[in-house]
Amino acid sequence: MGQTYLINVLIVILVLAIIIFLLFRELFCWYWKINERIKILEWQNKAFEIQNKTLFAQMMLLAGIAKKSGVPIEEINHQTKQFGVEFKEDN
Length: 91
What we know:
Elements: H1 2-31, H2 34-68, H3 73-80
């Protein structure tokens, strides 16, 4: 009887500790607006991804126009080096 009572008490204490932890965690997140910050950062990441794709497409378009206009390939590569893009001469 003594061991089962002790085990039951430990289980109840453990369950109560988990519930209290979850309640305080939710209260802490609400107070410091952590959940809102996460939503804003996720939205911001999506916006940056769209912006990067758009800028890359514009850069590729402008590089293609410059190449057709007779701008030397070295100049185009110098301008696009920061984006990690390098063009090669067409044969």
